[in-house]
Amino acid sequence: MPLSESMKAVLVECLVPGYNSRMEEVKSMMETVGYEIVECVSQKRDDYDPACCIGKGKVDEIQNIVHEKGAKVVAFANTLSGGQVLRIQKRISDAKILDRNLVILELFEKRARTRESKLQIGLARLLYTYGWGRESVRMKGIEREQMGPGGPGGYPFQVYEKDVRRRVSKIRAELRRVRRHKEMLRARREKLGFPVVALAGYTQSGKTTFFNSVVSERKQIGLGPFTTLSTSAKLLKLSEKDTILVDSIGFVEDMHPLILDAFNTTLSEISSANLILLFIDLSEDYASIARKASASREIVRHVAPSTDLIVCANKLDLVGSDLEKRLKAIQDNFKGSLVMPISAKTGENVGLLLKLVSNSLSKRSVSIPMPLEET
Question: How far apart (Å, rounded) are the C-alpha atoms in residues 313 and 353?
Fold first, then answer.
C-alpha cells in the first residue's frame, strides 16, 4: 500500500571539504521511521551557506521537487541552525524542515517503550529546538511589529523562554526520580555482590544480538538504527561468578551534545559498570571501522575512563581473508586493550569471550589461542 503524501520526503545534503557524508545513514533512519524518500539532492560547496546551508538556487530547486513529488518533508543530512531552518522554511513553505538531529529524535520517539526513554526524548527535543523556537517567535514579533510586551511579564520570546524553562525543569525532576530508582537498583545489585558488565558501541554493531544470545532474551533486533533506546539488565551466569549484563543505547557519530546530555541516564549505566564490552562492526569498510573505533574510544574515555574494557570486533561471520587488516584498524585505537573477534550471530568465539569476562571480573588471566597481537 503506498505511503500517504505526508510521509513522502526529500533528503538533502551539503558536502564541504572534510565532511563525511551522512546521506545513507539518515536515509536508513528515515525509512525506519516510515518515510518514503522520493528524491536525494546533494550540493558540493567550499563552505556552508550561512543563510540556508545550501545555496539559494538549490533551495529553489528543492522547492520545485517538493511540488512535483508531493513531498511534505525536507530533511537535511547536515545539522542546521535555527536561522537556517527559518529561512529554508520561508522559501519551502509547503514542507516541514528537519535536520539530522531531528531525524534521530523522530527515530528515538518511534523506538521509545519505557517512561525513561520517553522523558529523555522529550527533554532532548525541547533543548535542541529551543533556539529554533525562540528565533521563530522573535521573528514573528518583528514581522508583526510586536516589540512591546506579548503577554504577562515580557516580550513574546520571553514568554516562550519561560514556558520552555518550566517544561524542562519538570522533565528533569521526573528524570531525577528515575535516576534515584535506578541508583537503588544498582545499590541492591552491589549489596548482593553482582558485578555489572555493560555493552556499549555504535548502533547496529550487534550488541542486542549478543545480549539475546547469552541471556536467552528476545529483545527486538534488525529493525534499523536505535533498536535499543533504554537500558535492559539481565542476570548472566558465568563459570566464576554470576553477573548483571546491561544492554544500552548505541552510539551515533556527531550526535548533538544537547541530545547526548539528555541521555545521561543511559550513559551512567556504562560509567558505573565493572567491565565494558565495546562492540565494533568488523564488517564495515576500513575507513568506517577506524573512524568508529576512534570515536568509541573517546566516548568511553569520557564516560568511564578507569573502567576495564574488552573490545568485541563483531560480525566475524561476514569477514573474509582480510581479517587481520580489519583488526589492526581497531587495535591501533585501543593499544593495551584486548580486541576479541566474535560473531554474536553464529556464536563463534562467544564462549571464549565469556571466559575472558569471567576471568576479568575475578582478575585472572586467560590465554587466547588466536593471533591477536598488534602488527
Answer: 11
3-state secondary structure of 344: coil
pLDDT in tens, 127-153: 888 877 776 666 565 445 444 444 443
Give me the residues paired with residue 49 across strands.
53
CB distance 30 to 9 below 8 Å: yes
Quick one: fold of 193-361?
Rossmann fold (3.40.50)
Range in 183-187, 208-212, 285-289 the model is least confident about: 183-187
Report the chain's terminal Cα–Cα distance, integer Å.
Answer: 53
CA–CA separation, 228 vs 113, rounded Å?
A: 9
Q: Is the pTM of this model over 0.85?
A: no
C-alpha cell at 264: 545521561
- Please report, for residues 196, 212, 282, 286, the alpha-carbon distance to residue 342 in angstroms, rounded to integers and kept in the order given: 21, 15, 9, 17
The pLDDT tens digits of the residues spanning 324-361 come to 999 999 999 998 899 999 999 999 999 999 999 999 98
Strand partners of residue 234: 245
Candidates 2.40.50.1070, 3.30.70.20, 3.40.50.11060, 3.40.50.80; correct CATH number of 8-98?
Answer: 3.40.50.11060
Rg (CA), the chain: 23
